[in-house]
């Protein structure tokens, strides 16, 4: 869910931003520091703005300069930035994970699914009373508040972005500036500024995702490693498509989590078919891998397959 | 440039290209003499690594510089070549494969070619940004696979081998590092020559055309995709050779050789060296080994410096070091370099001062972050800095700000002068053309 929010603007920008995950990380770290000063709720607003300002500054000083050279230098400069940001973050905040705890109102479960032997399935808001879970044959599944909050923010972000881009004048100008820059320029819009603002807001969204990701997961210098998976999300969903980013994130999320529940491997499949497979059979090492172990590579496999068979992505509008 | 006009008799006389022979001779000489000048075993290890890096960087540049393909996963081909080579080496050691050790890198090359043929078929379907993303995806795929297949990749510990195996050929056992160095040097020279020759073939030329204007290439009847695919395979082959040499050199291959960090390093240094010129990646490769081995010893912040240098390079000198060098060579050829040396001195001196200020601050920050237990004092370029003292910080900030301001002033002056000289050179070229026709 998180990457859906993260990718939205990103896929609109037309510039592949390798440093996007870095902005995500900066968002988390900035929020960590600001929480100590102005509290979490305020930093939830301030640190995305801060990250957005940084992003706009980068666009203004560096990215704009190489824009005329074409796509490759654009990619390269964001790639270089990701190195620098990673090091600067490690420099300022250290290399070990920080304890960035969610505020009180985000701690604890959002709701609990109670599976009772007597009353069947039911859902209780907040933490379920202990007596409901302790009975024989009872089981409680707690859904953490942070995740619920994350889903809520992601959906809110998606909805407002969609409204902004498709239903308002600002969205019209942005779309025009991205697809027909000369024409938009001729109509009197300041295209470079539009680019700067779009890039800035993309980074701000990454920062917002970072704040929430920071409290939900860990805040550490390695958290920028989600970069490649975001690419997978965008490509699978389709570049330049908001709904595609949403679908892509769902697909990738499912691909990453569903195989974890299956504990079978290729050997079992052949055994079902009546073929005996031993350690001496050809390709045994490949067949031995459990499906649950492949969860790591499935998004990338999907990425490559999508690029071969449907380069537009699932819901894409633009080709490459 | 020679202009042959119609009325001249159809008679070709091809003089020896003295310049080219001189350059290649020098290159061979450097490869030959380098280990005799730096005789310590550390230097020889570094020289060996440089040779390996030169091959892989040149191979990468077939894609980046000559084909305009930005690959984020080139370590896959050199890395897989490495693994195949080390398995071959183990087989030779076990006696089940009768192959002299000197040919083991070729196994790596063939492995690289094989995987490039397999994975490149997918990657080269698209160009531009999509190509970059596919290579990224493929690289992540192979990286994840490397953890899943411990039989082939050796898990965390990697695969190790012994290179002193098999029959001795001409008394060479590859035990001492110097013998391995010369093996690498020979491969390096042959590969460099082969890759240079490639740029002169129709394939190499059409590859440049694919980079510059794919539509026209399609128009004249070539499949841009097939050209990219061929280039990709050739690049994979040479990358595999360098991987095989690395396997022989280190006698151990771990899964990190296929990792994204390695691919990133190739990209970074080929670009820093200069992708637009053939010899740029050679500079980049030498820089890469120096940076990875020496710089990381010297300072903890080396990755930060590297990133900053890269950013500045992309912004101000997209041609890399090689293009800076060639621009100044052009000035020298027209005898204008003398006019600039004062400006260069000023720029260099002031820039160095500003950099010293920045570096002092970075070093102090790193010191506070990592070595706080050792006390607030640190040595930086012979000076004692105190991370808690106001004077050190104020000094560093003052140095940086004044340096940056002065640098900007000199840079403007320099830029004006540079433009003037370039105009003069253009005029001179026009004049010479007018005389020669």
From TrEMBL, chain B:
- Keywords assigned by UniProt? Cell membrane, Membrane, Transmembrane, Transmembrane helix
Cell membrane listed as a keyword: yes
Subcellular localization, as worded in the UniProt entry:
Cell membrane
UniProt topology in membrane:
Multi-pass membrane protein
Q: What domain of life is recorded for the organism?
A: Bacteria
Q: Where are the transmembrane segments?
A: 21-40, 101-122, 180-198, 229-248, 268-295, 302-321, 341-362
- One Pfam family cited in the UniProt record for this chain: BPD_transp_2
- Keyword Cell cycle carried by entry: no
Subcellular location, principal: membrane
Name of the featured protein: Amino acid/amide ABC transporter membrane protein 2, HAAT family
Which species does this protein come from?
A: Sphaerotilus microaerophilus
Q: Cite the source lineage.
A: Bacteria, Pseudomonadati, Pseudomonadota, Betaproteobacteria, Burkholderiales
